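Standup notes
- HV: blocked on the assembly model, inputs below
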Amino acid sequence: MIEVESITKRYGSLVAIKDVSFSVEKGEIVGFLGPNGAGKTTTLKIITCYMPPSEGRVKVDGIDCFEDSLAVRKRLGYLPESVPLYREMTVRRFLRFVAESKGVEPKKRQKEIERVADTCGLSKVTNRIIGHLSKGYRQRVGIAQALINDPPILIFDEPTIGLDPSQIIEIRQLIKDLGEEKTIILSSHILPEVSQVCQKVIIINKGKVIATETPANLTSQLQKSTKIVLQVKSDSQPIDSIIERLNNIPGVLKVSREDHNGTLIVETDQTKDLRPQISRTVIENNWDLLEIKLHDFSLEDIFLELVTKEEEAS
Amino acid sequence: MAGFKPVYRKELYSFFASPTFYVVALIFLIIAGYFFFSAVSYYNILSFQGMQNPMWREQLNPTEMVLRPFFMDISVIMLLVCPLLTMRVLAEERKTNTSELLFTYPLSDTGVLLGKFLATLSVLFIIILGTLPSLIYFGTLTPLRWQIVGAGYLGLFLLAAAFISLGILASSLTENQIIAAVIAFGALLLFWVIGWSKAFTGPQMARFINYISIINHFENFAKGVIDIRDVVYYVVFSTFFLFLTLRFLESQRWRG
C-alpha cells in the first residue's frame, strides 16, 4: 500500500532523514516510533506529498508521490502534528470546506459531514467555532477532517499529544476501530500507545530506521535473558548471604539488588523457568518470600536498548 | 484546476468572519466619503461662480472636476489599505500550519493561489463599490457620463488586481503578517513613485519608467479612457507576481 524507497531529506546542510525504507501493507496499523527530532514528522510529510524528498521515492497504492501527487493525496487522510485548523470557522463550515476540497459530490457532502462528526463524537459541537473548542475536541476535529471522503490510508502524527488520560483512551479506541478497515500509520514517542494499538512498529532514530517488527517479535528478539524480580525479607541475616545462595543455582547469570527493601533481580538463562528453584532456595534458607514475578521486557526497554546500541555503534 | 472553488469560498468566509475586513471597509469608506465631499464642495463653489460669469460656465466639467480627482483619491486609499487585506492571505496559513492541510488535500497550487487572489480581489472590490452610491447621488444633481464612471471602476478593479498580486507575493515570503504588510506597502509605493524620476533620466529610461509606473496607467482610466495598453499592463503585472508567488510556494516546500 505504501512503499518508501530509500528516501533522504536534507534541510540545507542538516540531514533530517537518511536512506529510510519501509513498506506498509493494506490493513496494517503501523506505529512509527522514535525520540523527538528523529525524523518522524519529516517522513510523514513526505508520504503525504507535503514536500518532496531530496532523494528516493515514495509510492502510495502504486502511484508515485512526486509524479501524480493529487492522485496520492486523494487516497490519504492526514492529521498533522500541530493539529492545524481554521479557528475562525465553525466545525460544520470547516468540514464542508474539507469535503469540497477533497471532491465530495455536493449532494453527498451533508451526509459525509454528519457521518464523520458522528464517528468522532462531534455531533454536539458542529455549530461552534473551532477556536472556542477545548483541545480534546479540536483533536477530534483534526481526526474528522482526515476521515472525510473515506480515504483508505490514514496518517496520524502524534494524535494523542497534549490530551488528558481519558481523552487519550478515547482517541486510541477510535484509531483501533478505524484500523479494522483502513491502513494507518501512527507516529508517536509514547511507547505503550504503539504497543497497544499497532501491529507493526517502525523504530526510527536520528533519521534512520533501526528496526521494523511486530511488538511481540521485537520483545522476543531482544530478550536474551529472563529477568525474575523477587522480594525477600529476613530479620537476622544480611542480604549478601541470600544473594550468594541464589548465585549458586545453576542457570542463574546474575543477581543484583534493586533497592534496600530486599528487592532482588535475578537474571537467568532464557531456556528454563527457574522460579521454583529460586523460591525453594529462599524458603530453605529461612528467608521470607514476599513476592516473585517474571519481568516482561516492555517496549520501553527495547526502545532504549535499540537507541543506545545505535548510539554506541556510531 | 482543483481547489479554486473551495479555497475561494473559504477565503471569502474568512474575510467576512474577521473584524479586519469591517474595520478596513469602514476606514476606506470614511476617507473616500471625505474626498468625495471635498471634490463636490469645490465643484459647488465653482458652479456658483459660473452663475455670475458665463466664461466660467463653459469650463465647468463634472468629469474633470469631480470624477477624476475622486478616482485618483481612491487609488491612494487603496495603496494604504491593500497591504492590510493581503498580509494574512498566505502568511497566516504558514504561521498556523494550516498550509499543511491545504497542501495535502488534493488541490493544485495554482487553484489554491487563484482562489485566494480572486477572493481578496472580490473583497476589495466590494469595498470599492461602496463608493458607488455617492456617485449615483451626484448623478442626480448634475448629468454624468456613466461610461466614464464605468471606465473609472474598471481601472480601479485592474489596479486592485495588481496591488493584490504584489501583496500576496509579500505574504508568501514570511509568516509574520506585519512584515508582509510592510513589504507589500514598500513595494507598491516604489512602483508608484518610480514614475516621478522620469524628469531626471534619459529619454530611453524615461519611457521605460513611465511604462513601469503603476499609477501612470491608471490616469487614463480616471479620465474615462480605456486604453488596451493599460489593460495589458495590469494583466501582465498581476500574472507575473502571481507566477512568482507560485514558484515561491513551490521552493518553500522543496526546502521544507
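- HV (later): unblocked. Chain A touches chain B through 33 residues (CB under 8 Å). Chain A has eleven helices and 14 strands.
- Next: hand off to the docking folks.
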